[in-house]
DNA sequence: GCTTTGTTCTATAACTCATAGATCATAGGA
DNA sequence: TCCTATGATCTATGAGTTATAGAACAAAGC
C-alpha cells in the first residue's frame, strides 16, 4: 500500500485519503477486488484517528468506488455508470483548466500536461502486467 | 458581467465567485485591465454579504489575478510567472483526472473532454475579436 | 462636502474537521 | 465456545471555516 497523507496540508485528511485511493485505482495499483487496509490499521499507520479513515472510506463508498463489509473490509469494485458524473466532473475540470489558462499557461501546454498525467496511469498499469 | 453563484451548492460562495472570475479570465470575457464590479455592488446583485465578495477578491489578489485599488476597484492584471504554480496545479490535475479514470472513463475520452473545455476558452476569445 | 471605494476591526451563529471514547453486530480463528 | 478483528453507530469536544452583520477609516472623484 502506497498511501500517504500530509498532516501540514490545508486539504482535509479524509479528502487526501480519498484522493490517494482514487489515484491508486486510476493507476492500477488498486483494481477490482483489491482490499484496502482496515480503518483502524490505516489510522494507526498514519497516526490519525480511525474515524477520519472511516470518513474517507464512507466517501469512497458513496462515490461507488469501494464496497464495505464487516470482516471482508473495504474492497475496490468495478466502476458503475453514473449519468450525472460526467457533467459534474466536466464542470470541475472547467474550473481547474481555467485556472491554468488564466495564469498564462498556453492551452496546448495545459493539454499536454493532462496527457502526461494520463500517461502515468497507463504506464503504471502496463508495469503491473509486464 | 456574467458571474453567477449557486446558493444551494456545497461549494463556499467566495470559492464559487473566485472560480467564475477565473473562468471568465480564461475565456477572455475578462482580460488585462478589465474592471470587476465593486464588492458592495456585486454582493447586492447576488443578495449576499459584501464581506463574502471581499474574501473572493482577496483570494484572487493573493493568486496574482487581479489588482485592488481604492476607487479604481478590482482590475484584472496580466498573469505573473509563479514557479510553484505548475507543480501545485499538476498535482490537483492528477487527482481530478484520476477520478474520471477510476470511475471507468477511458483515458482518451478524458483527454478529449479536456480538449473540448480548452476549446471553449479559445472560441470565446475568437468571438470577442471577430 | 458628499459619495464611492477598498480596508480593517469586532462579533456571532452554523457548520466542518479531527479527535476521543464507547458500544454493537458479525464473521473468523484458536 | 471464547476471543479477536472488523465495520457501524452513537455522543462529545475543541479548533477552525463560512457567512452574516455592523461599524468605522482612508483615499479618490464629483
Provide a quick synopsis of the model.
Two copies of one chain form a homodimer. Chain A has helices at residues 13-27, 39-46, 50-62, 85-102, 107-129, and strands spanning 66-69, 73-76. With 130 residues, chain A is mainly α.
Descriptive account of the structure:
The structure is a homodimer of 130-residue chains. By secondary structure, chain A is mainly α. Chain A folds into 2 domains: 13-76, Arc Repressor Mutant, subunit A (Orthogonal Bundle); 85-125, no CATH class. Helix content of chain A is 59%, strand content 6%. Chain A contains 5 helices and 2 strands. In chain A, strands 1-2 form a two-stranded antiparallel ribbon. In chain A, helix 1 (13-27) crosses helix 3 (50-62) and helix 2 (39-46) packs across helix 3 (50-62). The longest helix of chain A has 23 residues, at 107-129. The first copy, chain A, is globular. The relative contact order of chain A is 0.12. Chain A binds chain B through residues 19, 22-23, 25-27, 63-65, 78-82, 85-86, 89-90, 92-105, 107, 110-111, 113-115, 117-118, 120-122, and chain B through 19, 22-23, 25-27, 63-65, 78-82, 85-86, 89-90, 92-105, 107, 110-111, 113-115, 117-118, 120-122.
